[in-house]
Specification:
- The protein has helices at residues 3-17, 20-25, 116-133, 263-273, 276-284, 315-318, 320-325, 364-367, and strands at residues 30-40, 45-50, 55-68, 92-99, 105-114, 134-142, 147-151, 158-172, 184-185, 196-203, 209-218, 220-231, 236-241, 246-251, 257-260, 340-346, 353-361.
- By secondary structure, the chain is an alpha+beta fold.
- The chain folds into three domains: 3-114, OB fold (Dihydrolipoamide Acetyltransferase, E2P), CATH 2.40.50; 132-218, Copper binding periplasmic protein CusF (OB fold (Dihydrolipoamide Acetyltransferase, E2P)); 221-367, Beta Barrel (OB fold (Dihydrolipoamide Acetyltransferase, E2P)).
- It has a five-stranded mixed barrel with strand order 1-2-3-5-4. A five-stranded mixed barrel has the order 6-7-8-11-10.
- A hairpin with a 6-residue loop joins strand 7 (147-151) and strand 8 (158-172).
- Helix 1 packs across helix 3 (116-133) and helix 4 (263-273) packs antiparallel against helix 5 (276-284).
């Protein structure tokens, strides 16, 4: 599984970990959830950094009750009592009580703690289960009760039908967000042909069918563009989409990943992304890039696109992401007007604005066919893998 899946697993674990918060939220008292950054036993204070990034000071009332909850537990009757001294930095805490008017402090009567070590153990279990029972694919058929996907791998395409289990948790990435924390509860009927799906569940003996316990879907797109201007203060780029020469705004957030391909890697990937005759021509022209063949990942080989579909950009049957992760990260300040970039993103609410998952620069060789000056995306794809967030 990719790092993106492992980040998704992490967020799944944290979401499940404080499902008890749902129960607490039903009471009249307010609550705050976050990670412990500082503890002051003498002042009976705990400082939390919430998931939204705000800092909240929790003052523990003399009658405050402390409980430890296991990840996924929803019944506080199964949460043993603990002492304030059992709380450590890095633990997740839900504080229930009375907030100040500015919401920056809390007078808490109940503290529910999930320890950092319990979180780590839960994450390890989740990762292992996703590795063992998880799949990733592109939706080829969608209906009200089941979907069909194409699994991609070195052996080529493999179809699979996915049916949600009775108690399956189905989520969908929100428009304009690359964070799994923003994914909304959904239903199987919301999934569309062309979506990317991650699912975890029990597979049939032949691997052609899965009864899924968890399904996460999203609509994603990849564009090629040239940079027109950069506003580092606003974290946006104004670009021209090479498809139709349309002006677009690319938003960069803390979860976006920007990288630049070294020239030699760009030449290799360009050769792999071209039809065989173009790859051979490029090699003969002295570019130094190897011809695209079945052996090195060209069309018909392990890297011939999405699971062998002939769509480029997945060199070596899926090792593009590994190659990208070995390239150095850059910032907006490292880009300049005129640079060519490839951007992967979620489908946004506005057609002329996207939030980037990946931005890859240094891609001129990939976008330019031999003997031509104009650039086009062609069959290149980055998919959604390797963003920040999930």
């Amino acid at each position: 599984m990719t790092n993106q899946v492992h980040r998704l697993v992490l967020m799944t674990a944290l979401a499940a970990a404080f499902s008890a918060a749902i129960l607490l939220a039903q009471s009249p008292a307010a609550s705050a959830v976050g990670a412990v950054t500082r503890i002051d036993p003498a002042a009976r204070e705990i400082v939390l950094k919430t998931d939204a990034g705000a800092e909240v000071t929790v003052t523990l009332q003399a009658t405050a009750n402390f409980r430890r909850v296991a990840p996924g537990e929803t019944d506080l009757r199964n949460a043993p009592a603990i002492a304030m001294t059992d709380i450590n930095a890095g633990d997740r805490v839900l504080a229930r009580g009375k907030p100040s008017d500015d919401q920056k402090s809390f007078a808490a009567t109940l503290i529910v703690v999930m320890s950092k070590s319990d979180i780590a153990n839960k994450q390890a279990q989740e990762r292992a289960d996703w590795d063992r029972r998880g799949v990733i694919g592109i939706v080829t058929a969608a209906g009200p009760d089941q979907i069909a996907i194409t699994l991609r791998g070195p052996g080529g395409n493999k179809p699979m039908t996915i049916v949600p289990a009775k108690e399956a948790v189905i989520r969908r990435y929100a428009a304009d967000s690359v964070k799994f924390a923003d994914a909304k509860l959904s239903k199987i009927g919301d999934i569309k042909v062309g979506d990317q799906v991650r699912a975890r569940g029990d597979k049939s003996g032949d691997g052609a069918r899965m009864t899924a316990d968890e399904i996460v879907s999203g609509s994603f797109r990849t564009i090629a563009a040239t940079v027109n201007s950069i506003d580092a203060g606003e974290n946006v780029m104004r670009v021209t989409n090479l498809d139709g020469k349309k002006a677009m705004v690319v938003k960069i957030n803390p979860d976006s990943v920007l990288r630049k391909l070294p020239p030699q890697m760009a030449q290799v990937l360009a050769a792999r992304n071209r039809p065989p005759e173009q790859g051979a021509a490029a090699q003969g022209s002295g570019s130094g890039a190897p011809a695209a063949t079945a052996e090195n990942g060209g069309p018909g080989g392990a890297g011939g696109g999405r699971g062998g579909e002939g769509r480029g950009g997945r060199a070596g049957g899926g090792d593009l992401q590994q190659m990208l992760e070995r390239t150095p990260k850059i910032t907006l300040a490292d880009l300049k007007p005129g640079d060519a970039i490839i951007v992967s993103s979620t489908e946004g609410t506005a057609p002329n604005q996207i939030t980037a998952i990946n931005v890859v620069a240094g891609v001129e060789p990939i976008l330019t066919a031999p003997g031509r000056k104009d650039m086009a995306l062609g069959s290149w794809t980055l998919d959604m893998e390797g963003g920040g967030g999930q």
